[in-house]
From TrEMBL:
Keywords from the named record: Coiled coil
Name by which UniProt lists this protein: Coiled-coil domain-containing protein 170 isoform X6
Tagged with keyword Protein transport: no
Coiled-coil stretches noted in the UniProt entry, renumbered to this chain: 62-145, 175-300
Spans annotated as Disordered: 484-506
Domain of life: Eukaryota
InterPro entries from the UniProt entry: CCDC170-like
Length: 601
């Protein structure tokens, strides 16, 4: 229809032109124009027919594609429904997996806590055993010292008896087998005075040993109190362990009830449980690393003394550095006037002055640089804006020139075939719009096909994930059995540790009782030694008073008392000899003997 209209319009225009009177030149010009228009018309008619055939093909393709699209839409809806169902299943399974992960984390944490408590209890038992061994050693040392003291006391008693016997022998050699009285023993002072110095030395040693024993007794008391406190702590920890054990038993029963409900879905979470076990292994490795760091830190603590020496050396270096600083800053006179204590303050004040001056200079330089940068930026922006303006003006000039040329070239052609071209352009635009619509529909169909392929891939992945989760469920069941076995082993280990702690506590109590009883016996023996020592001191004072020696002097030596006793015994023996001689002499020599006796006295 459109081609017939075009032909009719061209005929009308041709008839109208024939009616107008025209010259030959005009006719030739019109003929040329008509031939050109006819050739263009034929070409446009051919193009139009080709476009119509293409349109028909595209419409048939569109119909087939629409049917295929509807099928794809139905499949898409089915896939979407299946995807929604599987996504809901996945979300529910993920929630359950998270819950099981939390429960497994709680189980691992409780297991780690029980292991830590067991390790601490074992370490405390080992420390208690070490302390008990140390107490045994100290107790054996005390026993040895007590035996030595007893042997020394027995030796002193024997020496005292021998001394008394020797005194009796010296004074009365005739009465060797007879027992001397206490008054006679006071006179028999020679051997007592000789032994007094020896006994004094032993007394000093005994005092030292007594002081050492007292210090050791105090230390043993403190260690006993510490042991008692540590035993109480061990009891508290054992009670806390039992409480935690009961809590763990309750948790295990609850978890078993839950596990019986979730046995069907445990397989889906084995992978996560394996990851948790890997994390636990990593945590154990980190613990080992931290223990190594602890040992390293202990070594560093041991090397603290070396660091102190280094610090002293660095202090000397620091003082030298201060002297050099004061010399370079020309502060020697100021430091000497203010004192060496104010040297740091003077140096700090000088450095603050220098820093202020440098900061002021830096700030001025920064302000100048900032102002220059701002000026440069503004000038660059102006240049760029000018260049853009120039480029835009050039583009506008080129466009205007091109438009002028195009307008001048097309002005004639527009006048010749404006009507035909407008109609053909409209038809071509319609065809192009239809083509663009068809292309868009093709692209949409391709996108839908890609979505369907992606959905198929997702469904395959979901089926694979479901199979993997089923496999992991079996693995989780096996891991559950292993965890139950480990829990039973941990329970048995806790029971054994509790029994060992109770046995160690009873042993420590028995050892404390034995130590206290032996300490009491040691105190009694020390009191006896002190009493004997007091008796000896009183005996020495009585002898010194009887001899007329000055006891107010701080250090009265024993050899002086012995000399006085020897003189007294010698004079006493000489007196008895003279008395026996005087009994035989006649009465004339009585005056002479009395004067001699006076001299002797």
């Amino acid at each position: 229809m459109s081609s017939a209209r075009c032909v009719a319009q061209t005929k009308e225009i041709y008839d109208h032109l024939l009616e107008v009177p025209v010259s030959r030149d005009q006719l030739n010009h019109y003929r040329n124009v008509a031939e050109d228009a006819r050739s263009e018309l034929a070409a446009t008619l051919v193009k139009f027919e080709c476009a119509q055939s293409e349109l028909r093909d595209l419409r048939s393709k569109l119909l087939s594609k629409e049917a295929f699209c509807q099928e794809l839409k139905a499949e898409m809806e089915n896939y979407k429904e299946n995807n929604a169902r599987k996504s809901s299943l996945l979300t529910s399974l993920r929630d359950r997996v998270q819950e099981l992960e939390e429960e497994s984390a709680a189980l691992t944490a409780s297991k780690i806590r029980t292991e830590i408590t067991a390790h601490t209890a074992i370490k405390e038992n080992q420390e208690l055993k070490k302390k008990v061994a140390e107490l045994d050693e100290s107790f054996q040392k005390c026993l040895k010292e007590n035996e030595e003291n007893k042997s020394q006391v027995s030796k002193n008693c024997r020496q005292h008896e021998e001394f008394l016997a020797q005194l009796g022998d010296c004074l009365d050699p005739d009465k060797k087998n007879e027992k001397a009285s206490y008054e006679d023993l006071i006179l028999k002072l020679r051997e007592l005075c000789e032994e007094n110095a020896f006994v004094k030395g032993q007394i000093v040693t005994l005092e030292e040993t007594i002081n050492v024993h007292e210090m050791e007794a105090k230390a043993s008391r403190e260690t006993i109190m510490r042991l008692v406190s540590e035993v109480n702590r061990a009891q508290e920890k054992a009670a806390s362990c039992t409480k935690e054990k009961g809590k763990l038993n309750q948790m295990v029963s609850q978890l078993e009830a839950r596990i019986s409900e979730l046995v069907e879905q445990l397989g889906k979470e084995s992978g996560f449980h394996q990851k948790a076990l890997q994390r636990a292994q990593k945590a154990e490795n980190k613990l080992e690393v931290l223990q190594g760091q602890l040992t390293h830190l202990e070594g560093e603590l041991v090397s603290g003394d070396v660091l102190r020496d280094n610090l002293n050396f660095e202090k000397q270096k620091y003082l030298k550095f201060l002297d050099q600083l004061s010399e370079k800053m020309k502060l020697d006179q100021m430091a000497a006037e203010l004192g060496f204590d104010m040297r740091l303050d003077v140096v700090l004040a000088r450095t603050e002055q220098l820093v202020r001056l440098e900061s002021n200079a830096v700030i001025e330089n920064k302000t100048l640089a900032y102002n220059l940068q701002r000026k440069l930026r503004t000038q660059k922006e102006r240049l760029e804006s000018k260049e853009l303006h120039m480029s835009l003006l050039r583009q506008k000039i080129a466009q205007l020139e091109g438009e002028k040329q195009v307008r001048s070239a097309l002005a004639v052609e527009r006048d010749e075939a404006s009507l035909t071209l407008r109609k053909l352009q409209k038809k071509v635009e319609r065809l192009q719009k239809e083509l663009s619509v068809c292309r868009e529909a093709n692209t949409e169909l391709k996108a839908k096909l890609a979505d369907t392929s992606e959905l198929k891939i997702k469904t395959l992945e979901q089926t694979k994930a479901i199979e993997d989760l089923n496999k992991s469920r079996d693995k989780l069941e096996k891991m559950k059995e292993k965890a139950e076995k480990k829990l039973t082993s941990v329970k048995s280990e806790l029971d054994t540790t509790e029994r060992e702690a109770q046995e160690d506590k009873e042993r420590a109590k028995n050892m404390i009782e034995v130590v206290t009883s032996e300490m009491k016996t040691l105190k009694k023996s020390l009191e006896e030694v002190e009493r004997r020592e007091k008796q000896l001191v009183d005996f020495r004072e009585v002898i010194s008073k009887m001899l007329g020696l000055n006891m107010t002097s701080l250090a009265l030596p024993d050899y002086e008392i012995i000399r006085c006793l020897e003189r007294l015994i010698h004079s006493h023996q000489h007196y008895f000899v003279t008395c026996a001689c005087l009994q035989d002499v006649p009465p004339r020599g009585e005056r002479h003997t009395q004067s001699h006796l006076k001299l002797l006295h």
